[in-house]
Structures are given as structure tokens and as C-alpha cells.
């Protein structure tokens, strides 16, 4: 009888063993990946750009990424390097369940106050004065593997182009012309979580450039007394941006993500502001008027 019992137990052990193993063993599975698919609209200084300044980030580029809850409270901030492999488990967001919001910026930043971040375009310490940010998109933790972020310019781009008219001014002369912009506030106060400029701040500043084309990246702000000065062949002329018209209305604001392009036709006796071209950053109207020296 003892032998029979042992054999029965052994027999059922063989039957139950695979079932028990199948029930208790953790299944093999791949961790949920996390990757960013980004697009840059009209960037001025980031890798992989076309002739219009549009493009995308490339391997090795770094963004600062912000994870927020659905009430836009910051949960975690991290540096994301394109080309590296990331998994949701790398971010240690165990306390966050379900939906999250993800935003990002370039260049990468370190700040204790992401909702009140100061970006000074006159600073000598920044890699580029242009600042790109992607507004938050909704993702599901552990489920969303491809996060699509659309980066936009938060600054304003002011472009001044000089064009020779007649034979009294040469291209070489224009190459020696100095163009300056003054009376603007130097810093933008940015909410990095929303990817928006809240206001302008900082000291009243001036920037200058020599050559046929001058590009100034400025914080969005009211026009106020912002002035453009052109110096050429010992002559100079200062005029106010507030004198420029957009359609039938005077220019009142340097808008975030917009470009204002002035083409100035230059002769020995005059500077003529002839208007603006549309650039990838967006269209802020047309400026008209004559300036004579």
C-alpha cells in the first residue's frame, strides 16, 4: 500500500508541476521604450537644418524634458540625448499613474524654477541665443513609446538687410555698414512647462552687427522706444521701430516665434525701408517708410 500511495503522489506531481510553474513564473517581456520624435520649425542654430532653418534634432543633441501630471505640476526633469535608448522604468515615476504631460526645451537647462526661467539674449555664456521649446503633449506612462514634440521659437527674430541702389554705393561699402538695435529688454521670462514667454525683463540693452545682413534675436516685448541705427561712410541715421507699419497699423509688438525682416535700399543720399519677406518663423506684416540721410 505504501508503494501505491507514493507512486500516485509522484504521478500527480508530474502532472501539476508544469501547471504550477506556468502559473507562478514571471513571463518574459520587453520593457516599454520611451523615445522622442521631434520637429523644429524654422530653427536658427540646431543641427540638421534645411536652407530655411527648419529641421530636426540629430544623434547626440540634448533636450531638457519635463514630466508633469495632468494639472501641469512638475514631477521630474531630465536630460534626453538623441540616439540613446530609454525605458519608462528609467524615469522612476512610480508615483505617477496613467496620463502625463511631456514638454521640452533646447538648449538644455538647469533650473529650480521652471515656470519662471530667465533667458538673456545678451549673455556671453549661452551656446545660442535662440531658444526652442515644445508645448506639453499627453502621454500614457508605460504605454506611449513615441512622443511627438513640435519645437517652436520663443524669441523674436529681427532681420535687417541692406541693398545697394544705383552705382554710388557698392557691395563692399554695405559690407562695412554697422547696424544696431537698442532700447530693448534683454531677457525673456519663460514658463518652460507651458513653453511660453510670459514677459520681457532685464536691463535695457543694445546689440550691433556689421555687414549686409544683420540678424538680432530678441525677447518678445512691446515696441516701445526700440530703435534701429544704420552707420555707413561716416553717416548715420536712427529710427524707431514704432514708425514701421504692419498693413495699416503701426508695429506695436515683437511677437514670440515671429520674424520681422526689413530690407533697406541704400544710396549715397538715402535709406529706404522697402518691406519684409516671409520667413519660417512666421509673418509679422510689412513695414513701409523712407529714411533719408
UniProtKB/TrEMBL annotation:
Pfam families (alphabetical): Mfa_like_1 (PF13149)
Annotated InterPro entries: Mfa-like_1
Protein name: Fimbrillin family protein
Species name: Bacteroides stercoris
Signal peptide span: 1-22
Stored CDD domains: BF2867_like_C, BF2867_like_N
Transmembrane stretches, start-end: none
Keywords recorded for this protein, A-Z: Signal
